[in-house]
Design goal:
Helix content: 55-70%
Distance between the termini: 33 Å
Structural class: mainly alpha
Oligomer: single chain
Radius of gyration: 16 Å
Shape: globular
Number of strands: 0
Strand content: under 5%
Largest sheet: none
Order of helices and strands: HHHHH
Number of helices: 5
Length: 131
């Protein structure tokens, strides 16, 4: 059985040193915060396309929040407190599905395969290791 693209991305991030030493709940919480940081960077890509002042003002606030989120992601000790129960993990599963759905729609509308792109990006990032 061949690896799925999702598993390849996981293994690439493991090779960089990002996934080992965490419980499933800690890793999931940490990745939720990483996804927030990445989503803000993604939204920033559309800043110049918008002339709407509310969009740009919101992007300014999100950029500031992104700095805090990134610092928290990098703070390994901040995640030791995370110990979700089964109900919380189940809720997180379905929220992850909602996030993935937005990526699927954006990828199809943008004419790309987000999983193939994630494999390519994480493969090329292995040599960088943990920042």
């Amino acid at each position: 059985m061949s690896e799925t693209p999702q598993r390849q991305v996981y293994e690439n991030l493991a090779a960089r040193g990002y996934v080992h030493g965490w419980t499933a709940g800690q890793l999931g919480a940490r990745q939720a915060f990483k996804a927030i940081e990445e989503a803000i960077e993604w939204a920033e890509c559309f800043r110049t396309a918008s002339q709407h002042s509310q969009v740009n003002a919101t992007l300014d606030r999100l950029r500031e929040a992104s700095r805090e989120v990134r610092a928290l992601f990098d703070n390994r000790s901040a995640w030791k407190w995370v110990d979700p129960n089964g109900k919380q993990l189940e809720a997180a599963r379905w929220e992850r599905a909602d996030v993935q759905a937005t990526l699927c729609v954006a990828s199809v509308s943008g004419g790309c395969d987000s999983m193939a792109d994630a494999v390519e990006k994480t493969t090329s990032d292995i040599k960088r290791g943990v920042r």
